[in-house]
Every structure is written in structure tokens, then in C-alpha cells.
Amino acid sequence: MRPLGKLHERWPWADCFLTYVQHFDVICCKPSTQMQVLRRAIHSGGQRLGEVIPVSQIRAYANLIPRFGQRTDSRLMSFNSSEHCHKFFLNKYFDKNTYFSLTL
Question: pLDDT at position 104, please?
């Protein structure tokens, strides 16, 4: 997204693009896959923790795989699984740069 300012007025955000990002907490590392398990960070009121930041602050993207557990939620579809899931695997095998940066 890009903020719009007042017409005919110069302002510091004129050439800045923004994005919304969500925060995740690292829970553990699953030994069988060697992938970290992440959980959505939430406020005490239950809302997701996220913020709007400049795109220039993004260093790398992350590929997240929904972690379903023993029972799968019946609401899950291919287009909404990232919205209804609360736990994810951080896919370090997505590309070689991610793999080398996350492998010890």
C-alpha cells in the first residue's frame, strides 16, 4: 500500500510503500523435520499482533506451512488455511538461501 498525502504539499512519506506484517513466536523445533514451529503472536485481548512497516525494512520472505495436528478444522480450505491456523512450520527447505541461513 502507499499512503497519500495532501495535494500540492511535500511530505516525508511521498515515495514510501508500506506493508502489513504479522508477528509469530517460535515455539520449538520439530526433530523429525528439523523445522521450527511458529505460533501467531496475539494481544491479551485475542487480536493478532501485527503492524504496518515500510517495504524497505523487509529482509526476506518466509514460507509458512500450516500445522494441522491430530484433528483438522472443518473450515480449512486451500484459500483460507493461513487465516484459520494458529501454528505453522517455518519451511527452511523453500529455497537455498533460506535453508543456509536457518541451518546451523
Answer: 61
Give CA–CA dist 41/22, Å, rounded.
Answer: 8
Q: What is the mean pLDDT of residues 76-80?
A: 81
Is 35 among the domain residues? Answer: yes
pLDDT digits (tens, 9 = 90+) for 24-43: 999 999 888 889 999 999 99
**Angle (CA) 92 76 45, round 5°:** 85
- Answer yes or no: is 87 within a domain: yes
Can you state the percent helix, strand and coil of the chain, rounding each to 5? Answer: 15, 30, 55
**Cβ neighbours, 10 Å, residue 30:** 12
In a domain, 48, yes or no: yes
Element at 8 (helix H, strand E): none
Range of the domain at 33: 18-68+82-102
Q: For the chain, what is the domain count?
A: 1
